[in-house]
């Protein structure tokens, strides 16, 4: 098992990509702590994971700094260490062109994405520095490398910023045995996509099906990626085989952004 005895925190870990990573980590021997806003979804995730004492859930709204910090500390306190921090929670709402984009939507995207990633990373590093070991994995997006979608400038801006932050952390903490990488998925039809996609599609004047197919056709493989593919990359970056990989923005996008 690649992650035997390791302890991981995953924000937004109860569904979609976050839960896929939690499941993959647990299968590789890690103890996982999932954060999420819904107690019901947390219980459901724990039941589905069926990892016994090897998994835990704590309610966490990543837009609230204290809750992010409490989640990280809860993991370290519960399992006695912290090895892996996965900043997965993110998203946006209020889709509009820039001249019509509201302050509330902009601020919410900033809180959900860049701020949450910063708060989670900062707190995790305080544990990792003392241990001279750690893995920071940020779930970014292919749109953090380009800007090819209308009405989501707030989301695109945050993902670009997360990519820069990922590299800065890698540079500062590499000598301390800590790696920092971002995974940049292409379109994956998660629950979040099913919730937000139709609204984004409407803002672009297209159907949800056209919205999804547009992503698929942009890729070299002409289909969407899967949660399992993203989770497999997270396992690599989290384990010993990923010890020499840091400061990278790893695409899992079917060749949508081939650079």
Automatic annotation (TrEMBL):
One of its GO terms (molecular function) is oxidoreductase activity. Signal peptide: none annotated. SUPFAM superfamilies: NAD(P)-binding Rossmann-fold domains. Keywords: Oxidoreductase. It comes from the Bacteria. InterPro entries: NAD(P)-bd_dom_sf, SDR, SDR_fam. Belongs to the short-chain dehydrogenases/reductases (SDR) family. This is SDR family oxidoreductase. It comes from Actinomadura rudentiformis.
């Amino acid at each position: 098992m690649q992650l035997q005895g390791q302890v991981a925190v995953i924000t937004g870990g109860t569904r979609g990509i976050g839960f896929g990573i939690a499941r993959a980590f647990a299968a590789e021997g890690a103890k996982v702590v999932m954060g999420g806003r819904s107690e019901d979804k947390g219980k459901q995730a724990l039941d589905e994971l069926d990892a016994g004492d090897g998994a835990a859930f704590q309610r966490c709204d990543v837009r609230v700094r204290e809750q992010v910090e409490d989640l990280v500390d809860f993991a370290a306190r519960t399992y006695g260490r912290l090895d892996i921090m996965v900043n997965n929670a993110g998203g946006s709402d209020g889709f509009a062109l820039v001249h019509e984009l509201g302050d509330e939507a902009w601020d919410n995207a900033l809180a959900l994405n860049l701020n949450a990633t910063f708060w989670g990373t900062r707190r995790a590093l305080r544990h990792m520095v003392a241990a001279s070991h750690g893995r920071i994995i940020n779930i970014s997006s292919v749109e953090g490398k380009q800007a090819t979608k209308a009405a989501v400038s707030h989301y695109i801006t945050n993902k670009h910023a997360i990519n820069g932050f990922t590299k800065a952390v890698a540079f500062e903490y590499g000598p301390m045995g800590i790696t920092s990488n971002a995974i940049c998925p292409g379109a994956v039809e998660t629950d979040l996509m099913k919730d937000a996609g139709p609204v984004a599609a409407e803002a672009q004047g297209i159907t949800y099906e056209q919205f999804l197919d547009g992503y698929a056709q942009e890729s070299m493989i002409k289909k969407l990626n899967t949660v399992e593919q993203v989770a497999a990359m997270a396992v690599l970056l989290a384990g010993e085989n990923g010890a020499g990989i840091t400061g990278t923005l790893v695409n899992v996008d079917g060749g949508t952004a081939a650079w």
